[in-house]
Amino acid sequence: MLTLREDHEIESLLMKSEALLKGHFILSSGLHSNRYVQCAKFFQYPAYAELAAKKLAKLYEDPPIDVVIGGAFGGITIAYELARVLGVRGIFCERVEGVFQLRRGFEIRQGEKVLIAEDVVTTGKSIDEVAQLVKQHGGEVVGVASLVDRHMPDPEKLPYRFEWLHSVQAEAYDPADCLLCKEGKLPAVKPGSRGMK
Ligand SMILES: [Zn+2]
After folding, report:
1. The pTM is what?
2. Over pLDDT 70: what percentage of the chain?
């Protein structure tokens, strides 16, 4: 298991921007959870993005970095802000028929040191896809920087250095044996649906 990290400043901004909700939620996967994370709501506020980037950049002061890459769409804002703080290029990749690609003339040159930026890492699957793309272009993955680690059960171990600011410990349940459903105190809601606070 990865170590949990608590950054109370980031947590309070996640709550304030309603990027982090606590309750009883139906996730897009259909699973029920006691937490819902939508980092885009955090990144609505450029000052929050700037603060997060400064904190993450501090963790990557030592290794030389040539370019920061984010995956569309969640990683774009944090990749850009990190690039600004580190004084390097910030680019993003996007899915074309389900596969991450570099478009818009973005390049990773042979031997460039690449930092992958994400808003939230859950299983590490999309990080892996971005890393494959970086390698295909001859880049070297220096590490991964993420605002949040969602820390769902059994997170895949990332084969790269992984730095993040705040861990969100979410429980995920099959709807058939959801503890929150069994408690019956809070109805399960789909985040973003009408009627939800
Ligand atoms: Zn439930």
Report:
1. 0.89
2. 92
